[in-house]
Amino acid sequence: MAERLAEPKSSVIVNGRKRITSKFVDGSEMVEEYDVITDELLLRKRRVKNTLGNFGDWQVEVGSEVKTRNLEKELLIEANGSPEIVKQDTPEYHVFRIRNLPYAKDVFSVTVEHREPGDVGEIVVRTSNKKYFKRLSIPELQRHHIQLDPGHLLYDVQHNTLIIRYKKHLAVLAADAAAKKERAALPARRIDGADGNASDGCAQQ
């Protein structure tokens, strides 16, 4: 079921990205950024209001935020080797890439599990050496109330990165196709060179 909009979507083009802001009747907001040439989804983030009516932090669903570089912090993270998760969106798959996992493929167990009967379920990652454990959700399936199917799950390991692919459900593919048509028809003003955070229509309140 499509989420109900509180107002028409807005769109701007910033630094080669088409940024679309959606505000919903439940008070939540979503920002998506697409490559203006390839139409690849580069970022999707959402935030919701708490019981006091204030916005919580942005939750990144796809991609990663472009942040000011802190070389000392980056070197510390690299030296520490902490696993880093990035969710990607391709035409056919939901993709999770988990970096800094220096284990062979046979060390990993990647399964679909349900906390309660009838829930959408989660992708659960375990290692036989008990060095890593993670639960991953797919928000698109949660919004459509579609249960995860183990038959749609694939994974591989390349260059210390665990790559998990989940084949998109037909309902998600249909929603993607409809959204693509909508994006093509949505007018966008170009504000290249402007401060992207100040122009996304979602200033913190």
Automatic annotation (TrEMBL):
Pfam families: DPCD (PF14913). InterPro entries: DPCD. Belongs to the DPCD family. This is Protein DPCD. It comes from Trypanosoma cruzi (strain CL Brener).
